[in-house]
From TrEMBL:
Annotated signal peptide: none
Pfam family, one: GARS_C
Keywords per UniProt: ATP-binding, Ligase, Nucleotide-binding, Purine biosynthesis
UniProt similarity note: Belongs to the GARS family.
GO biological process: 'de novo' IMP biosynthetic process; purine nucleobase biosynthetic process
Protein name: phosphoribosylamine--glycine ligase
Pathway assigned to this chain's UniProt record: Purine metabolism; IMP biosynthesis via de novo pathway; N(1)-(5-phospho-D-ribosyl)glycinamide from 5-phospho-alpha-D-ribose 1-diphosphate: step 2/2
Organism encoding this protein: uncultured archaeon W5-61a
SMART domains named among the record's database cross-references: GARS_A (SM01209), GARS_C (SM01210)
EC number annotated for this UniProt entry: 6.3.4.13
Amino acid sequence: MRILGVGNAAREHAIAEKLSMSRHEPKIYWVGDYLNPGIDKICKSTKGDYALADPTSPTKVLEWATKWRVDFVFIGPEEPNFHGVPDVLRKNGVPCIGATRSASMIEMSKAALRRLQWKHDLRGKLLFKTFATAEQARETLEKYSDTLTWMQNVALKPARQAGGRGVKVIDDRQLYLHDEKQKFKTSHFGWLENYMKSYSDIEDKILIEENVWGPEYTLQCFTDGRNVIGMPLVQDNKNAHEFDIGTETGGMGSISGPKKTLPFITEEEYQESLEIVKGIVRAIQATTGEDYMGIVAGQMMLTEVEGPTIIEMYSRLGDPEALNVLAMLDSDLVDICLAILSRNLKESDVKFNQKATVVKALAPKGYPAPRNLATGHPILADEDQILKNDARLFWASAQRMEDGEIVTLGSRALEILAQARDHPSASAIVERAISQVKFKDGWGAFHRSDIGTAELIERRTELASRARNLYRQRRAKGTLSRRRDWLPKVGIIDPAKTLREEIAGLGD
């Protein structure tokens, strides 16, 4: 069997490793725009090959898939989906684990996701408004922010998936700071508009959402268009530094296990989250008329307003979240892929072990900005010693050069994973393994030592408990998901009702 993977990062390294472990003993082929040392090693050990090419180019990926006569393709990151790589592959008879461009719209356009949720009256949604220009956003903010509560406390986001950049959460409850926070909001609209100029594939540029709070978690699922099978929950830690301090990143590490839930999420909340993701899959299939085949994931938050709530959707495995679930997966990933492609996932035996899993990313100083400072640093990792310490290394934003040296490319250089009976034990294993990584030029690096510790998990548990108490009270009173605002000379209004009417008026 021959399998082609697409992408470059630690997620793709983990996918390549899991595919190579199959009972089918596949040859692993890969397309990426730089040479990931870990993936390259797997390709060579399985007698496959590695091509340096644009992973977002449908023609390039098809060219290599045809040349290598692969049995199917597994898409790692989101951008190949957005650029229609799965569409072109399937049109030319090459099976693909990956969402089509239309189906992946739930990730590419955050505005399209919100409209889909409101149009189909799906659970776990937030109030929102979208804008094509910063001026439109400023006008709306000036009109409503002094009267509509949800327009005061907001999350400002790029309306497109943009690698986690540009999100700002503004809590505008203090009257003496109101004017300053209004100024910051309007200035950030300009930043978002400028940042989004490089994306011409959607009309919406700026998204304003109501600000909610609670612990975040990710539910990743396999789907064949008919069946959706949930994986264990993963909690990613996006802030750069310990205890959620610092700039948001693509993810500095994550925890999962030892069961399908997390220590701060109940089984009931897991099932509610799964039903929410299933509802979105049904809705996007009804909208596009296409089967959704591959990976779908909900980045969620347990909120006081809705309980389990969608923050974003993914049309692929997360990074670093993929490392956690693939380490817990006891079933053959190739068998699961074949079941997806034959639309027989319901009969597939998908099993996960019950070990606690911790992942931590190591990044060169300069990440997440300015990344030019984090680029070009030679890195050494004693992978044999890391394995002896019961940990595993996955290469991320690091490239093997012609002389064999591995250098950083500006983002998280590598991710280290460990499994143990509990999270603190796994966290300690990763800490020992990270000491086996050095920068040859003495450049500084950082990671989050708190991920998986008892103290951080206790913080998450306390936050979840507060949110849970509030949303259960709302549910008992029949007010779950309800919002009310008051306007002068108008009285009480229902912003959710207004939004539903607006969405309905847009049609298809």
